[in-house]
Structures are given as structure tokens and as C-alpha cells.
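Researcher: Please generate the 3D structure of the following complex. Treat every line as part of one assembly.
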Amino acid sequence: MTSELRIDPRIVAEFLQMNKNILEAPKLVAAPDEISLEMTPYDVVYSEGKMRLLHFISPEPKQARTPLLITYALINRYHILDIHPQKSWVRNMLEQGLDVYLIDWGTPTEMDRYLGFDDYVNGYMDNCVNFVLNESSVENVSMQGYCTGGTLATVYASLYPKKIKNLILTAPVIDGSKDSTVVANLAKHMDVDKMVDVVGNMPPEFMYYVFSILKPFEQGLEKYVQFFKNIHNKDYVENFIRVEKWLSDTPPVPGELFREWVKNIYQDNLLIRNQMYVAGRQVNLKNISMPVFTQVAVGDHLVSPECSMPIHYAVSTEDKTLRIYATGHVGMIASSFSQKRVLPELGQWIKERSEK
Amino acid sequence: MLLLLNFVNYHTGAKVSCCLQLEMAISISCAYYHIILRMASTESYKKSLGYYGHVSLFWTDLISLMSSRPNSLMSTGPFRKLGVNSKKISAEMIEVNQELAEFNTRITEYYKQLTTTWNEAQKQFEKKVPEIPTDAEHLDSTKRIWIDIFENYFTRLFDSVEFAENFGKLVSSELELAKRWNNITSLMLETVNMPTKKEIDEMYKELHLLRKRVAKLEKIDNVGVNTNDK
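Model: Done. Output below.
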């Protein structure tokens, strides 16, 4: 009696090809450590503590006097907004004739563990805005916040409405009670006091763990299979390595800021209820009377659209736009889709509402 | 147990057959036996920990009392402080065992949740497999189905309150361990006159407050300068 294992020879060929690709990979692709994520040139025009204010150098003539100040998120680094020449958010904004500044939060150390919302909003952000206002000789700026940077921008706009001409919120974290993501689920059940009291700053490793369970099979397995499958596609692998490098580099979050964040936004949900206080000042979303452009992504698994969209209904301005895109959290800012769909209409919207 | 059943029968007027009574008595006895055994194991664990703690502290205290006076001559070196702190270190080491027990419970539950979910997803996938042909054309779709099924099951787990609650407690128990570890390290640092984490934290806090005060003063100063300019 004989038994025969029948395998389609094409499957064997595919398997062998995959092995060959894995062996060839180091010859074809640079290691993440060997590449630099710096793309568009900039000047560091102001710095305070670990924070730096970057001013991007534009080859294009300015089409608007009102500068755009981007408040980057607290997780990972700003490089995702300038990750690839063909997918750069910053470069696209410059090419549309805007004057672009960006706040890079740097890498907080244990020394910064007592920095909270007050230091970030009333300190760093306000100082940056004042600097930009002075440099540009204007009375107000357009401010864009991405992800957790969107929350900071919202708080700032509520406390300093006169300094903001236009507010752009890209996947902002606003209503924690409506956030259906794994991140929110874990944040709601976390003893944040104990974490901050014992370890100080939120360690990056904690964030890496959270990332790893967001889409464990798609992101933890299939993504790498596709990488080796496409190892001869230069554009694909270059972009892959750049995004991977960005993903694996997140700075710690200052302890007090992390404590306030988890409690005010996720656990007690104070921001959307106008019950959040920063240094004794109430954050009332009704103070946001300037034009507001909110961008959310249907496939966002880090900040669900239901968490971001309430800001559109909470602000007092009549000039408000809500755009829902068929993409994900990163796809909305660093993809061909964002270059074709998201950025052209945003640039147009900002220019129509800026000083000429 | 039978007496108890007879008492119940007498008061409720229930007619329970002898055989059924015996069966019930055995099963209730077994349940009691298990509860008592569990209590005994937890109790004996606590008892032995307590005993170990007591013996350790007793000898540390006694040796310290017996030897500290003549040794106080060496109060400038590390040995005196080590002698005093060794009691606290012993206490921390004993407490660590209790935190470890909680950590083990939480991590076991964590892996149990992952394993159960994996098995459920695998069963679901196996139900689908016979429907898919095993040729090269269908290799990708088989993989897609596998990923989709597993992704759905695990996302449901990670989105659940049960997972988040246990995860929160797991992290919390890890932090308790870290706290003990920090305490022991601080005691050792104290012994050799080095600044502890608590002392450095106090300095960071002071620095933070000072920076805020300076920023406030600078703002006031700038407003003054601008007003003078005008």
C-alpha cells in the first residue's frame, strides 16, 4: 500500500521563489539604520527643551501670507508627514504655495516626566505660535493637528481662538467614549496613575505592544510576506523600509501628559463635554469659532471616525467641513491617495481662507 | 452531611430516597473537599510565607540588636546602613512573592485567552478548508481566508472588556513588581550614599516648577519691554 502526497508543483515553485527572495533581500534593500528619514530641507527656527520648531524651505513662491503650523502627534515622529518625495504631506503643501512650520516634540527623557497639557499647550505651542506670528508679521496662523496632535490643536484653538485663522484636524482624538479601537479599549481599563508613579514616562515598548495587537496577522505576518514577494520592486521596498523605520521609532510620552491624556480623554471623556481644564482654564469647544476642516478615515484602526467626528458638531463656527476618506490612519497622510484626493482639496480650502 | 440532609428533609417535608440522599451527600462532600483543599493550599502558602517572613525578620532584628552597638564605630561605611536596611530588603523580598503570585495568575489568564481564541479560529478555518481546492490558483485565497478568520477572532478578543480588564491587571501586577524592585534598588543606593529614584524625582519636580516660574517671569518681562517700546 502506497500513499502519495499531491502538491501542485506551482505551489512548490512559489515556495522556492520566496526562499530565493528572502536570501537575496539583504543585497537589494538597505537596512533601516542605513537610511535617513529626512526629506524636505528645513531650518530649526526655535527650540525649547526637547521641542524644535521646523521651518521648511520652499522652492515655490508663497501664495498665502498666513503660515501653516503643523502640530505633530505624540506617538512616533513627524517623518511620516515627509516620508517619501512622492508621498510627502509637507512637500505637497509647499508646492501649493503655503509657508509650512512643524512642531517636532523630540525625545522626552525622565527629566520631562512632569510636563503636562499646560506645558505643551500654554508653553511650547503658544511660544511656537508667537514665534511664527512674529516671523510672518501676521495676526494668526492656520494650525493643523494630526492624531494626538489634533487633540492638542483643538485644546489650543479653544484657549487661544484669536491666534488661529483656520483649524485643520486630521484624525483627532476627541470623544474617547465613542472610540471603538483596541487602543481605547486598553486605555479605558488601565491604571494610569500606577504606571506614571512607578515608571515615569510612558515607555515606547508599551506602545509597540499596542501596535502589535492592532492587526496582528495582517501587520505582523502578511505585510512581511508581501515585502519579500515584492523584493524586486524598488519603489515598493523603499517605501516599506521607510514606513517600517518610522513605525519602530516612537519617543516616550511625558508621564503627566500621559496621565492627563488617558484620564481626560479616554476614561472620563472630559474634552467633548467641555469639562476639561488646563492650568485652571476651561477648554470650551464652543470657543472654536474659526473655520474648521476635519478629516477622518473609514479604515482608521488607531482613532476611529466616531471618535474624531464629534468635533465637527461641537464647535461654534458655521464655516466647517467634514471629509470622510476611504483609507486608513496613515493612508490619509502618506499615500498616493492622500496626494491625489486629500491634499489638493485641503490646500484649496486653506488658501481660500488665508491672507493673500 | 446525612444529618444535615435529614434536617432539611424534616423541615421541608421533602421525600428524598435513601439512595439519592447518599448520592447527594457524596457530591456535596466532594465539593466541600475541593473547597477546603483550595483554601488549604492558599492558606498554607500564605502561612509558609508568613513563617518565612517571621523567621527572617526575627533573625535580622536580633542580629542587628546584638551587633549594631559595637559596630556603630563603623557608621560612616556602608555596613552599618546595610545592616539597618537589610531588614527592609528582606521585607520587600517577601512581598515580591505575593506580587509574583498575582502576576502569574494574570499572565496565565492572558495566555489562556490567546490559546482559546486561536483554537476557535483554527476550528472555523478547518470548517472552510474542505471547500477550497488545493491548487496554486487557490493558494492566495486560502491564505486570505486564514488571515481574515484569525484577524476577526483576535480583533474581537482584543476589543473585549474581558481582555482589557485582565490586561490592565496584568500590567498593574507588573508595575507592582517594578515598584518592589525600585524599592530594593533605592535601599541599596541609600546604603552607599547615592541619590535614590525618589530623590531624583523630587529634583525633576523642582526643576519643572522652576522652569515654569522662569517662563512666567520672562513673559511678564517681555510684556514690559514691549510696552516700553511702544
